[in-house]
Amino acid sequence: MTRSISNHVTDESQEVDTGRCPDCETDTIVNDPDRGERVCRECGLVLSEEPIDYGPEWRAFNAQEHEELSRVGAPLTQSMHDRGLTTTIDWRNRDANGHSMSADKHGQLHRLRVWQERIRTKNAGERNLKYALSEIDRMVSALGVPQPVKETASVIYRQALDRDLIRGRSIEGVATSALYTACRKEGIPRSLEEVTGVSRVDQREIGRTYRYIADELDINLEPTNPRQFVPRFCSELDVSKTVESKAVEIIDETTELGLHSGKSPTGYAAAAIYAAGLLCDETVPQRAVADTAQTTVVTVRNRYREQLDAIDQTPAT
Known about the structure:
With 317 residues, the protein is mainly alpha-helical. The protein has helices spanning 63-69, 103-119, 124-143, 147-162, 171-185, 192-197, 203-216, 230-237, 241-256, 265-279, 286-293, 297-311, and strands at residues 2-3, 15-16, 29-32, 37-40, 45-49.
């Protein structure tokens, strides 16, 4: 170790280290990015110098330069059966200079694409996984849920496949159940009815498979809170923020009383929005609320009366 000429480092841009100086035994070690050193601010002792820089050797000042200079592909993803490590043959049939190829080359490239697609899946397990992940991708697009849900659903399906939980069940049913589990795990409000609407299997099979997979994979999920559905329902119904806030308040008060236990969270949220509209003197049709929540008018009517009775409030006439 060598001692620095300047005893004190006072640059505010330097990052403070959590280590302790072996010389003066103080917690004043800083990282000096300009010199590539770890220095004690108190006594000037240089603890290490010339560290390895794992970053790129080039600099980019905007997104376009970063894209042009980058020499790596997309990050690994669980939503593809080969995790995105495969290569693809471009469909445009052009060479490196952008010139169109001859007709003979077109046929050759077509045959190469066919064989490349065939060898991507070497056994039945990979073909199963590829089809299931494509189903998850389709349903994620139809539901409009974010990318983390897709990744989580893919991981859950992979775990089910590794544990041999697919045997005796349809690929579509397990894939849909994995997606529904991922939505609940990531806190994305999507009801079982909504997931069933984009699936190729019925709701009973999805519910049965979901319970089986959650139990076998030891996935513990909290019951869905009805208030998670309120912002989306209110946005689709185009109601005011006052109604939305009142609906959340009604749900919070009634759930503390245990009124939501055993009831559908979407129907409960829809009833709270209708009740909030009555209390805020803003007309929200029962039919529109029921259709948005994919429930019945009878459910909305029964639930909102229970909620108003529980909080002891009466709408203005």
